[in-house]
Amino acid sequence: MNAEELKQEILAFHPSVVFDEGGQFVNANIDAADVLTLLTELRNRPAFDFDYMFCLTCVDYKTHFTMFYHLRSLTHRHEMVVKAKIADVNAPAVDTVSHIWRTADFMEREVYDLFGVKFFRHPDLRRIFLDENWPGYPLRKNYEDPNMIEL
After folding, report:
1. 36 close to 95: Cβ distance less than 8 angstroms
2. Segment 39-95, tens digit of pLDDT
3. E strands, 14-137, where?
4. 53 - beta bridge partners?
5. pTM of the entire predicted model
6. Are 96 and 122 in contact (CB under 8 A)?
7. Domain ranges (residues) in the chain
8. CATH of 3-120, one of 3.10.180.10, 3.30.460.80, 3.40.50.1970, 2.40.128.20
9. C-alpha to C-alpha distance for 138 and 86, rounded to whole angstroms
């Protein structure tokens, strides 16, 4: 399935997806509330069979957070990125996908630890790098550390 066919198949069952043009991957933009629905379909439908999530990360844009899910189908040899916008910067949260891809377990814990994004129904959501008493989330744009060197 080429990139255009992939887009059309996704739009057929999820018409609210908006695609970015250009780049190495097909980039699908969705609202955070739709993450679980879309990603479950991408994993379970035989036409897609995205059986491997090779990266999950977050970006803080000051006005919102965006979750990035990099997916690959080892069967069909196609790849894509799903970007989910989280509007609430004070209490960012999204559904877990750790029950869909086991690789998401630690990646979601890393995002929680460094960005403070909560993952609903995650089986073991706790800090992975920093101490449980660490104040704040170091990869947020508004994070301040008195030991940081300002340029």
Report:
1. yes
2. 999 999 999 999 999 999 999 999 999 999 999 999 999 999 999 999 999 999 999
3. 18-20, 26-31, 52-60, 65-72, 79-86, 93-95, 118-120
4. 71
5. 0.94
6. yes
7. 3-120
8. 3.30.460.80
9. 18
